[in-house]
Write a sequence for this structure.
């Protein structure tokens, strides 16, 4: 019998052909319907035929297998990100922490409005305890200058452990 970690690794070894999600909700993850994937799935679910009938291939067209239900129900996976299932929510990785706000401020805050926007972005990052890399700080700054709600976005980054891009997508689609 496989361990939980081995089951997740087995699911993650399957090549994903299509996914769909709605914001934070994963709707489905499809892999090719082939012998290799069926063999792997049979090591994860207790009854492969029943799983395919109920969740994996409900149309019985043998074109693709939906595997997210197998991940949630039979491996204890709690998160899907970057094309992989995870037992825990992955940490957001920071490339380079902004340490020289003085230099960055002299580069970005070229007028009174931009100075205010710079201070607001810095204040929001500090409020949510975010350690932004310089690239993301500049991105937030540009959004703030354009009148966007960067405080909401930073809250999303912190509360849901999202990357800048994931946060921006959530903002656009809200």
């Amino acid at each position: 019998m496989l361990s939980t970690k081995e089951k997740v690794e087995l699911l993650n070894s399957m090549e994903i052909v299509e996914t769909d999600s709605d914001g934070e909700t994963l709707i489905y993850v499809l892999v090719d319907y082939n012998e290799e994937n069926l063999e792997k799935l049979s090591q994860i679910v207790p009854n492969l035929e029943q799983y395919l009938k109920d969740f994996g291939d409900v149309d019985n067209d043998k074109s693709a297998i939906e595997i997210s239900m197998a991940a949630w129900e039979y491996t204890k996976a709690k998160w899907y990100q970057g094309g992989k299932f995870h037992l825990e929510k992955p940490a957001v990785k920071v490339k380079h922490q902004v340490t020289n706000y003085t230099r960055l401020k002299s580069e970005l805050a070229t007028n009174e409005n931009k100075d205010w926007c710079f201070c607001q972005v810095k204040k929001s990052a500090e409020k949510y305890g975010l350690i932004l890399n310089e690239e993301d700080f500049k991105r937030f700054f540009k959004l703030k200058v354009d009148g966007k709600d960067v405080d909401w976005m930073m809250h999303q980054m912190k509360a849901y452990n999202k990357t800048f891009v994931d946060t921006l997508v959530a903002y656009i689609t809200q």
